[in-house]
Specification:
Blueprint: E1 5-6, E2 11-12, H1 13-27, H2 31-43, H3 45-77, H4 84-90, H5 100-117
Antiparallel strand pairs: 1-2
């Protein structure tokens, strides 16, 4: 998969479009429409695989964010002044491990960007 960097705007158009598509399908559709999208995604093996991978990534990211929010709530609810160093260490977020396929895509993109810079 080639990099779709748009030098005019400075981002990967394909990745941006994919994220917006995912957001639209999984969050911005009413149940009747969402069912139609899910049915369409299931009907195509390649799209189904894509949707499953996207949803797994999204859920992993969501779980990590929920841990951060939970920790923030705990800090806010404390009656005594917290140890801010401990708070800071608990608020770090490490993105979930991406799949091997995605690793290869990101590596390819990085190599292409490095070539552009040299």
């Amino acid at each position: 998969m080639g990099c779709q960097m748009d030098s005019r705007v400075g981002y990967d158009r394909k990745e941006h479009a994919t994220q917006r598509f995912r957001y639209f399908i999984f969050q911005m559709t009413v149940p009747d429409v969402k069912v139609k999208w899910l049915n369409a995604l299931r009907a195509d093996p390649e799209l189904r695989e894509w949707a499953i991978e996207e949803m797994k990534i999204w859920l992993a990211e969501g779980r990590a964010l929920m841990k951060i929010h939970k920790k923030s709530l705990e800090v806010l609810e404390m009656t005594n002044e917290p140890d801010w160093n401990m708070v800071k260490s608990g608020l770090r977020w490490h993105p979930p491990k991406i799949s091997t396929k995605q690793d290869a895509e990101w590596e390819s993109r990085l190599k292409e960007k490095m070539k552009l810079l040299s």
